[in-house]
Automatic annotation (TrEMBL):
It comes from the Bacteria. Residues 283-296 have a biased composition (Low complexity). It holds the Pfam family GFO_IDH_MocA. Residues 269-299 are annotated as: Disordered. The lineage of its organism: Bacteria, Pseudomonadati, Balneolota, Balneolia, Balneolales. Residues 8-125 form the Gfo/Idh/MocA-like oxidoreductase N-terminal domain. This is Gfo/Idh/MocA family oxidoreductase. PANTHER family: D-GLUCOSIDE 3-DEHYDROGENASE, UDP-N-ACETYL-2-AMINO-2-DEOXY-D-GLUCURONATE OXIDASE. It comes from Fodinibius salicampi. Transmembrane segments: none annotated. Residues 135-258 form the GFO/IDH/MocA-like oxidoreductase domain.
Length: 352
């Protein structure tokens, strides 16, 4: 009888900006090792493979045909995740997808369905859930220390210069990026907002492109929110803010206030007794013109340390493909609300 597998052989698809972060995280986890990479850009592929000493492929079918390959990590533009992911699923490979899962719920559902039909696992990278102070805040909320949540304010007030959008043809496009500031820069905060505060019942939004040229997506958006638990809130996303600010989530509840400023948590309230701010290793702000500013692989590694054992043990990973549909439904709902000037209920979008 063959011994059960204790680690996975992993191949990475797309050798762009975020690929190094994934490769470094994989190198540090005990549950997998990087063995190969695929890219259509020969210069990027050669640089990546030399740096991480892995085999390179410019033919995707040959990449997938490697009998040693167990898991495929997709780091290509968002609107290509379905195309690469469904072929990997058909080849019997588990999938890890860089956020967001796709640019539309329709395409995302097709990927989830394809993985289910081929009996392979699917996880989506939302590494901000593994920030120490975020986990602390989640525990405080779940234990009831904050009490009933009444008002929430979440903002991603970042800056991207025109060169950022001009540097890659897919950035800010509807077909490959899915939009602009909300689906690209702010979707991590959307995921945290829903994970911490619960699902949104309805939202009403505005969006516009105010400071950038030659992009189809928005660079500014705001939305008012009604949560299923009765709380109300405001969500803001921008890549136009000078100077850029930390990502912030402020939760007001009956026993006090929790303020997540970047990766640091501050609690205020007579029942909380905690004014301490904890400095964490990784900044999730990335508010400057470079999306990799202050980035480390620490929280990616923590998510890999959860995903790969879940795959090994046939458990549900954090965040599963199905879970990732919730944040995408919020984004799709925001866009629909802004376009049609009406309130939108994300559950109706999830229901198809």
């Amino acid at each position: 009888m063959a011994k059960p597998k204790k680690e996975f052989n992993i191949g990475l698809v797309g050798c762009g900006t975020i690929a190094d972060t994934h490769a470094e995280a994989i190198a540090e986890t005990e549950y997998g090792r990087l063995i190969s990479a695929f890219s259509r850009t020969e210069s990027n592929l050669a640089t990546f493979c030399n740096k991480f000493e892995v085999k390179g492929y410019s033919d995707y079918q040959k990449f997938l045909a490697d009998g040693d390959l167990d898991v495929v990590v997709v780091c290509t533009p968002s609107g290509t995740h379905l195309d690469y992911g469904e072929k990997a699923a058909e080849a019997g490979k588990h999938l890890i997808i860089e956020k967001p899962i796709e640019v539309s719920l329709d395409r995302a559902r097709r990927l989830v369905d394809r993985c289910q039909k081929n009996e392979v696992k699917l996880a989506v990278i939302y590494q901000n859930r593994f920030i120490e102070d975020v986990k602390k805040l989640k525990s405080i909320i779940d234990e009831g220390a904050l009490g009933k949540i009444v008002m929430v304010d979440a903002s991603v007030k970042w800056f991207r210069d025109q060169e950022y959008y001009d540097s890659a043809g897919w950035r800010g496009t509807l077909s490959l990026d899915g939009g602009g500031a909300v689906i690209n820069q702010a979707i991590h905060t959307v995921d945290l907002l829903l994970w911490l505060c619960g699902e949104v019942e309805s939202l009403q939004a505005y969006k516009d492109t105010l400071t950038h040229k030659r992009i189809e997506g928005e660079d500014n958006a705001v939305a008012s929110l009604r949560f299923k638990n009765g709380a109300i809130g405001v969500f803001k996303a921008s890549t136009s803010i000078v100077p850029p600010q930390n990502r912030a989530i402020e939760i007001h509840a009956e026993n006090g206030t929790a303020h997540l400023d970047g990766d640091r948590l501050k609690l205020r309230g007579t029942d909380l007794n905690d004014e301490e701010e904890t400095k964490t290793e990784e900044s999730s702000g990335a508010g400057a013109s470079s999306p990799m500013a202050g980035m480390s692989n620490n929280n990616h590694k923590k998510q890999y340390d959860q995903i790969l054992p879940a795959f090994l043990n046939d458990d549900k990973p954090v965040v599963s493909g199905e879970d990732s549909l919730k944040s995408l439904a919020f984004v799709e709902g925001l866009y629909l609300s802004a376009d049609e000037k009406r309130a939108v209920y994300p559950d109706t979008l999830l229901a198809g």
